[in-house]
Amino acid sequence: MTSLAAKLAPESIKKLIPYQSARRIGGEGRLWLNANELEHGVHYGTHTDDYNRYPDFLPHDIAKAYQKYCKTDVPAVAVRGADEAIDLLVRTFCKPGADKILISSPTYAMYEFCADAMAVETIDVPLKGDLFQLDVEGIVEKAPLAKIIFLCSPNNPTGNLLSRADIVSVLEGTQQEALVVIDEAYIEFELAETVVDLIATYPNLIVIRTLSKAFGLAAVRCGFILANEDVMEFVLKLIPPYPMPDCSAKIVLDALSPEGIDIAIKSTLEVIEAKHTFINAIKENQWIEKIYPSSTNFVLIRTHQKAQLFNYLKEHGVVTRNQSHEPALNNCVRITIGSSESMIEVAQLINQYSVSPL
Ligand SMILES: Cc1ncc(COP(=O)(O)O)c(C=O)c1O
Prior knowledge:
Elements: H1 4-8, H2 11-14, H3 22-25, E1 31-32, H4 60-70, E2 76-79, H5 81-93, E3 100-103, H6 110-117, E4 121-124, H7 136-142, E5 148-152, H8 164-174, E6 179-183, E7 205-210, E8 223-227, H9 229-238, H10 246-255, H11 258-282, E9 290-291, E10 298-302, H12 306-315, E11 318-319, E12 321-322, E13 332-336, H13 340-352
Parallel strand pairs: 1-11, 3-4, 3-5, 5-6, 6-7
Antiparallel strand pairs: 2-8, 7-8, 9-10, 10-13, 12-13
Helix pairs in contact: 5-6, 5-9, 7-8, 11-13
Bound molecules: pyridoxal-5'-phosphate (PLP).
Pyridoxal-5'-phosphate (PLP) binds at residues 36, 81-83, 108, 152, 156, 183, 185, 210, 212, 218, 223.
């Protein structure tokens, strides 16, 4: 018999497949290199305050500290992770059952997931070629059909930056049509390439950021939306009443202090170095068809041995992400860059791997 809940739930929710986050997929392992987290904790300070009062309605001190970090005056607001930013933007600007968003696949799955959850359709204008760059003409042509264009730079799971000139062309071509969200979750691994500076010129540009990656604070849940006042006016209507738990807010303020930023920069440089050493150590393996250039804390590897490699690493306690569910990434495995010791171990394992019959 159909349950009451099943009778009441809208069709869009009944069809929805829960987002397959690394935690949800779970599994067993020793080295967790499947969620693009920083492998070891970074400690920014300790607090023993009381938590009996509701937190700030909008943590202005955090927003101010983040603007300073980004060297910008454009309005910033803290939310519980970049994922909440994506959800908030879809709910703010899209009408369920009527509106559409546009994405360029392969890309971060949460854009389409948040749209699906709201019965908002997703138009896909896939990334082009082996360099995974934007199909600017295709996007501009379809933009009038969409309310929001979600682009990710550097892109997850391909690892590359989108060309700044292409982003500008998209912004130029869609100014009267759609909001353009650039998800810069991994930008600290190539900070000079940020497009935050373009917000002042393009009123339709929104940048989302996170402290989950380079700052190593995935458990604290802090992300940011940076956009002009006109956009913020609507976003702030829907923002949860207490968007940031106080205990998170304190850690975030420490992380965004000059000392905190220095710690994050040092740890980011270590990850980048571990990435180069790792790539150099494995690149001669003939069964690896391609290691994609990476501007992030992960690398995407193309090999026909993808399932075998994924399982082999898993048997050795190393959990990675098989991207084969994405048609464009049919033979790809994504490996997060952990500490240099971990990556030396993973490189040794990969170099010891003997090719299995397909
Ligand atoms: C491209 C991209 N955007 C956003 C997020 C979500 O980040 P947060 O932890 O801030 O919700 C992720 C997490 O993996 C991501 O890869």
